[in-house]
Design a protein that fits this description.
By secondary structure, this protein is α/β, with parallel strands linked by helices. Helices cover 48% and strands 18% of the residues. It has helices at residues 3-33, 56-79, 95-107, 120-133, 146-149, 162-176, 190-205, 224-233, 244-256, 272-278, 298-311, 319-339, 347-355, and strands at residues 41-49, 82-90, 111-116, 137-139, 155-157, 181-186, 209-215, 237-241, 263-265, 286-289, 360-361, 366-367, 379-384, 393-399. Helix 9 links the parallel strand 8 and strand 9. The protein is elongated. The protein starts with a helix and ends with a strand.
C-alpha cells in the first residue's frame, strides 16, 4: 500500500473513531435524561390500578386523576432540573398481576413512588414488594384494615378504613333506614369481606338481625341462587360488600324477582359503572363512600370542569382522590429534593417525606398521615341514587 493511501486510511479511521465516540457520549446523555436529548433528570411516578376488566372504569379514573396532578406540577419540577413522568401499570384487579407489576416498578430505578392500588386485595401483597425496595405508595381507595395495620413504612392511604366505613353504613341502615332484618352479601375479596364483616358486627350491635351472610365470586353473572336464598329470609334491607359490576347485576336481578327492598353498597359502587350495569334499576340504591362529591363546592366544580376538558370524561369516584395522592407524593418529592441539596433523592428519602405529610390540603381532602399511614382527616359519605344518573345525592357525611 502506498504512503498516500495509508495516510487516507488512517484519516478515515480517526474520523470514524471520533464519530463513534460522539455517538456514545450522546447515548449516555440520553440514558441519564430519559431520551430526547433533554438534560433534565427523569423521575417517574407509577400508577397501579385496573385498566382492563370489570373494574376498569374506576381504575382508569385513578390513572387520569394522577396524570392531571402530574401535568399540573411538571413546570415546577422542570425549574428544579427534573422531568417528571407517569408510568401507568394495569394490575387487572388481580393480586398476582399487581405483584408482578410491583417487581417491574422496583426494577425501574427512575420510579420513586406509586399512586395506587384500587383494590385492597391487590395492594396488600404488592406492598410487600414496595417495602422491600423502599418505594412509597399512596392509595386513593384501599379500605381494608390490613393495608395499614401491618405498619409498613411505605404504605399510606388518604381514605377511610373498613372499620370506619362499615360501621357508618350499619348505623345508617339501622338508625335512619330502620332496617331490622338484613341480608349481607360479600365478594370474598379482602375489601368486600372486610367491609361486610365490619357492617355485620355493627348492625348486630345496633340491634338488627342478620338474616343471611352469603358470598359470591367476582365475575359471576347469574345470582338467582343467592337471591332465592334471600327471598326465603324476607329481609327488609340488603348490604353488599363488593364492586360495581356484580352490584349492578344483583340490583337488577333482585328487583326482577320482586325483592324490592333497600340495597346498600359502599365505595366499590361509587362509580358511573353501576349505572351502566343496572340502568334505571339503580334508582333508590344507597351507598357509603370514602370520597366526597367535589362538584358541590366552587373550587371542586372548577377542578371537575378542568378534568372533563382534558380527558373528555366526567370525574368518577376516585378521580380527585388520585389527584390528591399524586399531589401528596409530589409535595414530598420536592421536600426530599430540597433536603438533598437539590439533587435526586433516594427512594428512602421520598418514602420518609411522604409519611411525614402534615395538613396537606388537596382538592378532595386534607391529609395528615399517622404512624401507620392512615389519614387523620378521612371521612365517610352516604349517597342515594335518586335517579339513574351518577353520582347519587349526598345525604350525610361522617367524621371520625
Amino acid at each position: 500500500m502506498s504512503m498516500k493511501k495509508s495516510f487516507v486510511a488512517l484519516l478515515i479511521f480517526v474520523l470514524a473513531g471520533s464519530l463513534l465516540a460522539a455517538c456514545g457520549k450522546k447515548s449516555n446523555s440520553e440514558a441519564s435524561s430519559g431520551g430526547g436529548g433533554s438534560n433534565k433528570t427523569v423521575i417517574k411516578i407509577a400508577t397501579q390500578s385496573p385498566l382492563s376488566g370489570g373494574s376498569a372504569v374506576q381504575g382508569e379514573a385513578i390513572k387520569l386523576g394522577a396524570q392531571l396532578s402530574l401535568d399540573d406540577h411538571k413546570d415546577e419540577f422542570a425549574k428544579l432540573g427534573f422531568d417528571i413522568q407517569l408510568a401507568p401499570y394495569d394490575d387487572q384487579a388481580d393480586p398476582k398481576k399487581g405483584v408482578a407489576n410491583a417487581e417491574l416498578v422496583a426494577a425501574d430505578k427512575q420510579i420513586l413512588a406509586v399512586v395506587g392500588h384500587m383494590n385492597s386485595g391487590v395492594a396488600i401483597p404488592s406492598s410487600v414488594v414496595y417495602e422491600k425496595y423502599n418505594i412509597p405508595m399512596v392509595s386513593p381507595s384501599n379500605t381494608a384494615t390490613q393495608v395499614t395495620d401491618r405498619k409498613l413504612k411505605v404504605v399510606n392511604r388518604i381514605v377511610a378504613r373498613d372499620d370506619f366505613q362499615g360501621p357508618a353504613a350499619a348505623q345508617y341502615a339501622v338508625q335512619t333506614a330502620g332496617a331490622k332484618n338484613i341480608f349481607v352479601i360479600q365478594d370474598k375479596t379482602a375489601y368486600g369481606q372486610g367491609l361486610a364483616e365490619a357492617f355485620k358486627t355493627e348492625a348486630e350491635k345496633q340491634g338488627a338481625k342478620i338474616a343471611g351472610y352469603e358470598s359470591i365470586t367476582i365475575g359471576e353473572k347469574d345470582f338467582n341462587g343467592i337471591l332465592n336464598q334471600a327471598l326465603t329470609k324476607k329481609p327488609d334491607f340488603i348490604f353488599f360488600g363488593g364492586l360495581y359490576a356484580e352490584a349492578g347485576l344483583l340490583v337488577k336481578q333482585a328487583k326482577e324477582k320482586g325483592l324490592d327492598v333497600p340495597f346498600m353498597g359502599a365505595d366499590g359502587i361509587d362509580t358511573q359503572g353501576i349505572v351502566d350495569v343496572a340502568g334505571d334499576k339503580v334508582t333508590g340504591v344507597l351507598y357509603t363512600s370514602i370520597s366526597t362529591d367535589i362538584t358541590k363546592t366552587a373550587d371542586g366544580k372548577a377542578w371537575a370542569d378542568k378534568y372533563k376538558q382534558k380527558f373528555g370524561k366526567n370525574v368518577d369516584g376516585y378521580s380527585a382522590y388520585a389527584y390528591d395522592c399524586m399531589s401528596v407524593i409530589l409535595e414530598a418529592l420536592k421536600k426530599a429534593i430540597n433536603d438533598n441539596g437539590g439533587k435526586l433523592p433516594s427512594r428512602e428519602q421520598v418514602r420518609d417525606a411522604v409519611r411525614a405529610t402534615k395538613d396537606f390540603q388537596g382538592v378532595a381532602t386534607k391529609v395528615t398521615f399517622d404512624d401507620k399511614g392512615d389519614n387523620d382527616y378521612a371521612k365517610v359519605f352516604i349517597y342515594k341514587f335518586e335517579k339513574a344518573a351518577y353520582p347519587g345525592s349526598m345525604i350525610s357525611d361522617i367524621s371520625k
